[in-house]
Design a protein that fits this description.
The complex is a heterotrimer of chains A (196), B (124) and C (86). Chain A has 196 residues and is mainly alpha-helical. Chain A has helices at 13-35, 40-56, 70-96, 116-128, 154-175, 178-183; strands at 104-110, 132-138, 143-149. Chain A is built from six helices and three strands. With 124 residues, chain B is mostly helical. The chains are: A mainly alpha (196), B mainly alpha (124), C mainly alpha (86). Strand 1 of chain A pairs parallel with strand 1 of chain B.
Chain lengths: 196, 124, 86
């Protein structure tokens, strides 16, 4: 659970190779997009470059136990785009409301699924989407500390917290395993999520 | 002819709204009271504004090679903006440049036991 | 398209002016870094808008470089900024 990349005992060799294959595919795609045209020379040079990159800068192992679900992915992407537009417009309106001093909060959200990948993706999505910013993370307990802008009171804070949990649920439904989806039904760890 | 006109109108709308969002980011950056709030202004409207302007440019250029470049710029922005914001946000909090009088609640303060001693959350 | 060009340049110029005020006023390095990041994003917007206005794609590779540069710049400064000034 630590960011100690030297001793990953839980990751089997096969998934290491799958991770590398995914990384090479992504890098080759970026290479193709840079050149803008598909040609065999591009494909081969892209493969060569990405293999060199992965040899020189090896990636830490990623634990990915689930599988991709198309419906979940589409649902997540749609909500992400609409949230991005709504949040940006809200913040723009807030910026132009002169004389209004926005209040904010820093809240702790312990995620229900103990997976680094879910933590990373939720963090990315949350910090791009609503009026929120990741201030800190705790990898051991997969907890996000989020700065939220424009919350007036405790009720707004709790509403936002539910929002983050919904984002997490959408991400897990898109990429998680069945066991991880079942974890979503668990209640939030007592004494951690809610304010006492 | 008409399709071109429609594309141009769409592109113009995208460009202007993107520029408006950039302006909103500038206003927010200048006006918001503390650094973390300013970072909100810096990340979100800015990202959407940039995406809109890139979309407008793609509508005007209508050329596969150029559009792939624009897609790449957009993907880089979406992937890197949260990471950069997180790095800066963490540095801000650790440098204690947060206006605590404007916070409704700070649940991080109690958890950072090593650096910020204090039982439980600080409710302001 | 001329109207769009003028409007977009006016809006972006105003945004740049506001961001420059923030860069000058500070008050800390991190404030300036955030502002420089926004400035870079506005420059990207301006270059893209110019390419859209003239329908000339010569400057597009610059956008790719700039979008990476802003990320590397702010991350490295945040990484090496002093921790606490108590």
């Amino acid at each position: 659970m630590n960011n100690d990349a030297a001793a990953p005992p839980a990751v089997p060799v096969r998934s290491r190779w799958r991770d590398r294959a995914v990384a090479v595919t992504v890098l080759v795609m970026v290479w193709m997009l840079l050149w803008g045209v598909f040609s065999w020379a591009n494909l081969i040079s892209g493969l060569a470059v990405s293999v060199v990159v992965l040899v020189v800068f090896p990636l830490p192992p990623v634990i990915f136990a689930g599988r991709l679900r198309l419906l979940g992915l589409l649902h997540f992407a749609w909500r992400f785009l609409t949230d991005l537009v709504v949040a940006s417009v809200q913040l723009a309106v807030l910026a132009f409301r002169f004389g209004h001093q926005p209040r904010s909060a820093i809240i702790r959200v312990p995620l229900r699924v103990p997976s680094d990948l879910v933590l990373t993706l939720t963090g990315e999505a949350v910090s791009l989407v609503p009026g929120s910013l990741i201030v800190d993370t705790d990898q051991a307990s997969t907890t996000l500390y989020i700065h939220v802008i424009n919350v007036a009171d405790r009720a707004a804070v709790e509403a936002f917290r539910r929002n983050v949990y919904e984002t997490e649920a959408r991400i897990v439904r898109a990429i998680g395993s069945d066991a991880e989806i079942r974890m979503l039904d668990h209640p939030v760890p007592a004494g951690k999520g809610e304010l006492t | 002819m008409t399709a071109d006109l429609v594309a141009d109108i769409l592109a113009g709308t995208c460009l202007i709204s993107g520029a408006l969002l950039s302006l909103a980011a500038g206003v927010g950056l200048l006006r918001f009271p503390d650094l973390l709030s300013r970072m909100h202004a810096a990340t979100k409207p800015q990202v959407l504004g940039l995406l809109l302007i890139l979309a407008g440019t793609a509508l005007r250029l209508q050329n596969t090679i150029d559009i792939t470049t624009l897609v790449l710029v957009g993907v880089f922005q979406l992937a890197t903006a949260p990471v950069a914001a997180h790095m800066v946000g963490r540095a801000v909090y650790r440098a204690r440049q947060v206006r605590t009088d404007l916070l409704v609640v700070d649940e991080l303060a109690g958890d950072r036991a090593g650096e910020a001693p204090g039982p439980g959350d600080r409710v302001v | 398209m001329i109207v769009v060009g003028v409007t977009v340049s006016a809006l972006l110029c105003a945004a740049v002016a506001l961001v420059l005020v923030r860069i000058v006023r500070g008050p800390t390095t991190l404030d300036r870094i955030v502002a420089v990041d926004v400035l870079l994003a506005i420059v990207i917007c301006a270059i893209a808008a110019e390419a859209a206005y003239t329908r000339d794609a010569t400057s597009l590779p610059i956008l790719v470089v700039l979008s990476i540069l802003g990320f590397i710049g702010s991350v490295s400064v945040a990484r090496f900024s002093p921790r606490s000034r108590r």
